[in-house]
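Example record

One chain of 375 residues, shown exactly as stored in the release files.
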Amino acid sequence: METMLDKKVKYITQAEQLKQLSKEEQAAIKEVTERFSFRSNDYYLSLINWNDSEDPIRRIIIPHVCELEEWGQLDPSDEASYTIIPGLEHKYNSTALLLVSDICEGICRYCFRKRVFIESHEEHRLNLPAALEYIKEHTEINNILLTGGDPLVLATSKLEAIIRQLREIDHVNIIRIGTKMPAFNPHRIVDDPALLEMVSTYSTEKKKIYFMTHFVHPRELTDLAIESVHLLQKAGGQICNQTPLIRGVNDKAEVLAELLAKLSFIGAAPYYIFQCRPASGNKAYTVPIEEGYEIVEQAKARVSGLAKRVKFVMSHTSGKIEIVGKTEDFVYFKYHRAADDEDSGRFLSFKSNPEACWFDDYDEAIQEKSNRPAT
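Predicted structure tokens for this chain:
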């Protein structure tokens, strides 16, 4: 696969390369990496305070023995059920998802697609001509999400070839690029004028390119990272940020509020806060849903309206489920977007379960309401 490997950073993929750690710590990490891959670079590792064993950036990227605890599954959102052909998912009526890369600049320890980095998977071998034909035939698809892995790992020429062909399909109005590159390696953006030219060419007056960034902690918003966001904006890209709620990273209201505020300051719209998906190895990174709701609401109470547009959601197999409220005895959900359009907007209430980490951990709904008119 053609990739854009920035010469300004050095890649670290082995525990032995982490010279900041003791031999004992390296050995413990190696045990984890035999199961779940590790990848980072010297730019991102420089953000870590190595004197703090609980440093949040360290927790994001450095393997930990807690990942060996048996919990979760490799496909927690059941993406396999929505895979039409290799590399193409069609879960929501108007949106198709293309898996264009099986490499990330760094591998988040809480990744929900860690199955991609364990071994080669057919689902990530994108058959682009077949995918484009499917999209052409399905005129209800008006937006495409490019994901992976990270699309910005691809060489600009490779990425442009995909975007150019998508722009040739009249009913595709929005192209979204899911990326953590501005956090992991902003040099990739700052030092590649061809990428910015490509964005300027294909993010047009009526058909925008959106970059769905992945800043999860305020310290990731370095001056260089902010410059990379600004350059994408200046080229015509629209920036929205998606933040998973992660134990030990952003599970304090003041930290999450600082992140939301700083994102709003630079025009990176806070879009979603995701409940950490129950992927294998993710238990120690997961905040129970109801505790998470309290953290999110306390954070939103500290920021302006522009920073609190964010929604707290779960990407469940049945749809994107928003956590909308709780009382002492009950917790309330709404289908923000459902795989079955009939369920979109559906409102559900459940008895409180403070230990619940996923939608499936709740018993059958006590009452169900819908925003659809009665028939």
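Notes: Residues 11-285 form a domain with the TIM Barrel fold (CATH 3.20.20.70).
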